[in-house]
Amino acid sequence: MANNQSDNSEFENLAKKYLEGTISPEEQTRFEAWYAGFNDEALQLKSDRYDSAEELRKAMYQRIQDRMINNRKKNIIYSKIAVAALILVCLSFVFLLYFPDKPSTFENSVEMVEATNIGPGRSTASLILDNGVVIDLDKLKDGDKVDLIGTSLQKNVDGEIEIKVSDIPVNNTNIEYSTIRTPKGGNYKIVLADGTQVWLNSSSSLKFPTVFDKAERIVELVGEAYFDVVSNKNRLFKVISDGQEINVLGTQFNVAAYLEDRNIKTTLIEGSVKVSTANHSLLIEPGEQSIITKEGFAEIVNVDVSNIVAWKDGFFAFDKLNVEEVMNQISRWYNVKVSFKNEVPKKQLIGKISKKENLSTVLQMLTYNGINIEFKNNTIIIK
Question: Which of 114, 154, 244, 291 is close enough to 145 for a disulfide, judged by CB 3.0 to 4.6 Å?
């Protein structure tokens, strides 16, 4: 870290721009790289000292404040706005200093040039009707609707697809099924016929009836989705995904069931759900996550649910995730490939960063954590 008044003034100005939102991409890269190289052994926080991201955030917040106080005693000039900016960066990119590895400066900036042109994903999806017709939901205007048997699918003012059930009775044999599918780099929200809200993450699909059966409500999921299920004691809501079945009456939960992932993870926010497979039946409570492996192993663990559902609110949130899991998330959101030159680094990452950032910013955060990355031909290469 620079220790003369001129450099401190420069970073004070960059901090002010950072908070005001007027900082340029080049200035932001410089400011964040400067912070990542913050040379203080006291800030080298070890992973075995903290059980959660929240504990780490609090510890880092206090250490940053203590550092600023000590620096004032040494007559190094830091304005209040610079302190606030440092704390903001600390909370946004907390995983920079999580491991005992010495954070690297951004040495491979040249190799990241291509990544600056890769923007974040957005709300986009396609709808496949029962008759095979594919509708690009981006092309529907607010208020546009598609008429089906006994119902219609309408794009509401919030840009979401909402199913409107008509008063005309529908025989079970006439129920139509549709599938909403998000691409890599896309997400979407749909309101089902019973009012249940579903947020679909990138590279996911949900098959659903346009009108629910009188006995039960069944949907099929591939990928990841957050469900806010409308309570109906007379009709169970079921989510089927890759050999797993979830039974609920009315609750909020998250399901991650990507075909390429090793595990199916179901996380309960409120209420209670039963997770069943051919070999297991698990009842999970709020704050718990069931993990079903491809090999049939099952367990229940306690988790920080805010990290699990952060994607729905526009954030990557890593709480001791391994590198492969993190790269899968980044690959889906930015629609890029991932390649490992050698073995997958045995690291666990922790932190939170906006999904609105360009790919280059996210990759920079990983390099600060000691991961050697190169980006070429739309591929993230982990060296």
Answer: 154
